Amino acid sequence: MSTTVIQLIINGLLLGGIYALISIGLTLIFGVVEIINFAHGEFLMLSMYGSYWLFQLYGVDPYVSLLMVIPTFFLIGWAVQRIIIQPIIDAPPLNQIFATVGVSLVLQNVALFLWKADYRTVRTAYSGLSLKTAGLMISFPRLVAFFLALALIAGLLTFLKRTYTGKAIRAIAQERRAAMLMGIDINRMYKVAFGIGIACVGAAGAMLIPIYYTFPTVGGLFVLIAFVVVILGGYNSLIGALVGGLIIGVVEAFSGFFLSPHLKEAVYFVIFILILLFRPTGLFGRG
Amino acid sequence: MRKNTTALFVASLLAFVLCISPAVTAAEKVKIGALFPFSGPLALLGQETFNGATIAADIVNEKGGLWGKQIEWVKGDGVDPKKAMTECERLISVEEIKLIFGTYSSSRSYAASGVAERNGVIYWEEGAIADPITERGFKYVFRTCPRASQFGIMAVDFAKEVLAPKLGIDPKKMKVAIMFEDSLYGTTVGSNAAKHALNMKMNVVATDSYSHKSVDLSPVVMRFRAREPDVIIATSYLQDGLLFWRQAKEANLNVKSFIGTGACHGMPDWAKTFGDEANYIFNIDPAIGINPDVLSPKTKAVLKVFQEKFNKKFGHLPATHASLGFVGARVLFEEVLPGVGSLDPDAIREAALKVNIPKGDTIFGFGVKFAPPEHPAAGQNLLAHPALMQWQEQKMVVVYPVEFGVSKPLIPLPTWDQRAKGETSFVK
Question: Where does B1-146+290-385 sit in CATH, by number?
Answer without folding.
Answer: 3.40.50.2300
